[in-house]
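Appendix B, record 7
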Amino acid sequence: MMRNPGCLSLFLATLVILFLSLIFVDFLDTTLHKLGMSHVGATCALFGIFIGSFINIPVQFLRREEEVFNEPNSLYGMGFGVPDMRRARSFTILAVNVGGCLVPAAIAVMQIVRIIAWGSETLTVMVAITLLVTVVTYYLARPIEGRGIAMPALIPPVVAAIPSYFFAGSHAPSVAFVAGTIGTLVGADLLHLEDIKRINVAVASIGGAGTFDGIVLSGMLAAFLA
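Structure tokens (predicted):
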């Protein structure tokens, strides 16, 4: 009896996705533990990042002279969403993504408190590396029609991790996380808000869509590498 090759391919693809998801979750959990978070705290942060990636909080409505069309698949940090149902709008919604902005920023604030307690030398290193990441991500980020702001995801964490490893000593994970997260958030998103007014996009989400990977991976991977 011949098996359906389509079903077998779907089954294998599902197994691969589950396996990669488990690896990614374990990677994030390990990274959060390196940042001094408890098991409960790390678990809550993971849920906040994944569930929050589907939640955008509107903060401003920007009126447009021309109509813009929403792209449902670009509303969420993970890059997928509801079926495509285009609707014309006369405004752009500026929103904040919970999983790609608020949760990483909250973790970064916790790390900044720790860094301040470690002394001015570590704090100075953190500020310097954060400024470096901000400059790099500012020039890497690009406004894209229908999506908002997008940027390469792997360069910022490397930029944050390497100097943190050499100059922050045992505090490198925390310094790298703050630099990778805050630097990317400021450089890629906040400093490009004016660009949103010049592109055709219905929803521009800070920490969502094109910069979700940049912000979350920058912080997590930078801390892991450090």
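Remarks on this record: Residues 8 and 135 are 47 Å apart (CA to CA). Residues 5-225 form one domain.
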